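Protein 1 of 2
SEQ + STRUCT:
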Amino acid sequence: MPTQAATPTQTATPTSTTVPTAVFVRSHTTYAADFQLVLVGELVNGGPYEVYGVRVQARFFSSGGEQIADAEAPAVFGKLDTERTAPFRMVVDVDPTAVESYALDLFFDDFTIAEYRDLEVSAVAVVEREGRVAVVGRLHNPHETALTSIRVAATFYDESGEVAEVVELAMFGETITPGAELPFEIPLQEAGRTYAHLHVQAQGQLSLF
């Protein structure tokens, strides 16, 4: 049975919350992009066991308290170990100027038939190539089995340590064998958003072949 963890209604400005004993949203923010609302944030597993398939559901309200939109987005990674983080990114088809506040709810599963492993990340840099900006780096598989369905995410933070942006890359056509390395490149949109530092994470599924 899916498990739900709720967070209280929040305004567009992220606020600090007491660390609970379950999965929670540590930081989140919104911004307008192409007449849509983008919601990005970071999840933390504060519980004693790993969880799977974390989904973020959001309800958006006008200044009069009327619900004007709802949306759902998964965490970038299928598995969230205890005391670990995972980012999420949600694009909502709603007028950003009409949103006064929003409420977030989390759902997750206690088990899954899929097996996930984290990949080591190194040589991370933000570069400009042929007029395009991207996050680049290398992945290393330290495990004894090959990994596939690889996902890479870069979380950008402001000077206060709050999430400013999340970008992700799905490398579903790639398989990384034990001990091997694999380069990655995540394109960045020219949104003019500033950040103080970034954190890149990667995860893959055990390959059956």
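Protein 2 of 2
SEQ + STRUCT:
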Amino acid sequence: MLNKATLAALLLIVAGIIHNYSFMCRKLAPGELKAVYPTTAVGKLILDLSWVGFAAVGLFLTFALSLPLGVLATVMYFLLQPPLARLLGFKGLTDYVKHIDRKKP
């Protein structure tokens, strides 16, 4: 059975994955995407609302349990970005950032 800490951790991990995935996919042109991502505005909205909901509930549960646990959850969010860059077909987060920076005017 899930206790509050386990549920909070799962919700925040899922929210972090969905949010980072959505953010990183939006930065790429549709032809550059090597992963599945919604093309319609409704699909993107549903994806964004899902991570916002998961994050809100997860953070509420986390900070209700303890402040250090909430801080740890926030740090974990940033640790999810390098694996997601690899999922999108880049060598790593640095390769992804360089690719995005080259596209800026």
